[in-house]
Specification:
By secondary structure, the protein is an alpha+beta fold. The protein has 6 helices and 8 strands. The chain has 2 domains: 146 residues, no CATH class; 42 residues.
Length: 219
């Protein structure tokens, strides 16, 4: 993976700590960079630690019109009007920080439950981060950091390439959710669909699903 993607993932950690962490004063938060696509928030009740992981392959995906549309963050920006509904590298990565931090706030309020992750409470918190100006502040900070390292994030709008399964960004082994509380791992990427092997309560089942209906989940 490119050193640029690693560095930008690191800057996302710094920007999150500077602009969003104060909104959850007193929370023990660890921000880290992962080597793959996995981008998630986790909470350890034993230690009280919240962890946000930004995957470097996710960063690379969101710099490319061919792959950025596969991510939930792209659908949220366009569907909910975040950042004016404009998809750009800068907007996608800034929104990713907000998305994961909203999960922290959701967990802290006791509104995250098994099978109910991207729920009404989550989107209320995510909306507030955008409408109260915190998302704009995060994006501004992230852009300043990237400009300082002489590799500024692109701010021009991109046209997302039409997605086939092979161009969706999903790979064998990716954890996904779809439908009403269905979950699994990508077993095969076909021309138009992905073959999903069920996990958890869906174990033992297989599904063929359009990539547009899949959402990545943490392992």
């Amino acid at each position: 993976m490119s050193s640029r993607a690693v560095r930008i993932a690191q800057l996302m950690c710094h920007a999150t700590a500077e602009t969003l962490s104060p909104l959850a004063d007193g929370v023990l938060l660890r921000l880290r960079v992962g080597s793959g696509r996995a981008t998630y928030h986790r909470y350890d009740p034993a230690t009280g630690e919240h962890r946000i992981n930004y995957g470097v392959r996710m960063v690379a995906d969101k710099a490319s019109p061919e792959s950025c549309g596969a991510w939930l963050s792209a659908r949220e920006i366009r569907g909910r009007g975040y950042y004016g509904g404009v998809l750009s590298e800068s907007n996608l990565l800034a929104h990713t920080c907000c998305h994961e931090f909203a999960h922290l706030l959701q967990t802290r309020q006791g509104q995250r439950r098994r099978g109910s992750v991207h729920n009404q409470a989550f989107y209320r918190l995510l909306d507030e981060l955008h409408w109260d100006g915190h998302a704009d502040a995060l994006r501004s900070t992230l852009n300043q950091y990237s400009e300082a390292m002489a590799q500024p994030l692109a701010t021009t709008a991109v046209t997302v390439a039409e997605r086939t399964a092979h161009g969706s960004g999903f790979e064998r082994g990716d954890s996904v959710r779809f439908g009403r509380e269905l979950q699994g791992r990508v077993l095969r990427v076909n021309r138009r669909t992905c073959t999903i092997e069920g996990t958890g309560h869906c174990r033992g089942r297989r599904y063929r699903v359009s990539p547009q209906l899949l959402q990545r989940t943490q392992d």
